[in-house]
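Listing S7. Sequence submitted for prediction.
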Amino acid sequence: MFGFLPHNLFTNHVGKSTSGLSPRLWSRVTGTVMASDGDKRLVLAGDDFGSFFGTVASKVGDYSGGYKSYEETGGTITQRPTYKGGVIAITSDGTDNDDMALAAGGATGVLGAISDTAADAHLTAFECRFSVSAVTDDMGALFVGLTEEGLAAAASMTDNTGVMADKDYIGFCTVHTNGGTTGTNAILKAQYKKSGQTAQTPIAALQTLVADTWYKVGFVYDPAAPPAKRITFYLNNAEQATYVTATNIAAATFPDAEELTFSALTHQGGATGAWSLYLDWWAFGQVI
């Protein structure tokens, strides 16, 4: 699915600074399957962007692997030819409030759901590796993570703030103010939201982004974990000390049992300063 080669990512990791999947995160998934003595299986999806091509017409693109995009005039989504193994660049042309978006599964496809209902409570993991080309006052906002289907569209992020639209999602994002301070634009958060509810930010300052620096961000939902640690966030293979609890998941603000897919979004924060979100890979796994 989506051109993903799971054995490459699973074998090319040793520590937090390597380019492959984070072992502390994914060992929880593989360990659960092995401990089940064959009663469970791991469903994998993702992409290392080794082969990425497509066409764009009237701001809407269709790319290999089943991706749908929304690209403002002057923006592009292209492979970076100088990077081996596949890296794509989602690039704004510097026009204020321009949206750029890429969603797996076209307009309707989904990967799975995070549910606390016993019959559907599956261990679920997500991770991706990304960087940004610049951190400036006008850089704007970004999101990488899981969202409801069809989010590759205009206004997926709000003008002048970069706040995510009123959709279902869980992932990692920044916000901005036009002409705001670089420090504000560069602060990466862990956040989730159920459509129609107020966004929740378990980690308000996960990482201050630095230009041309790679980051691996992800999470594991484990329905068998202690209630205080149902969702664990990871940054560069390191477990974070703030969690999403069973009570949080049961609340109306969490996208409980909502169908989700991978999305990557950017929003231009000012009238100058074209910039790119670089994606090396993303991965999704669910034990069923």
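Caption to Listing S7: primary sequence and predicted structure tokens for the chain studied. The chain has four helices and 18 strands. The radius of gyration is 18 Å.
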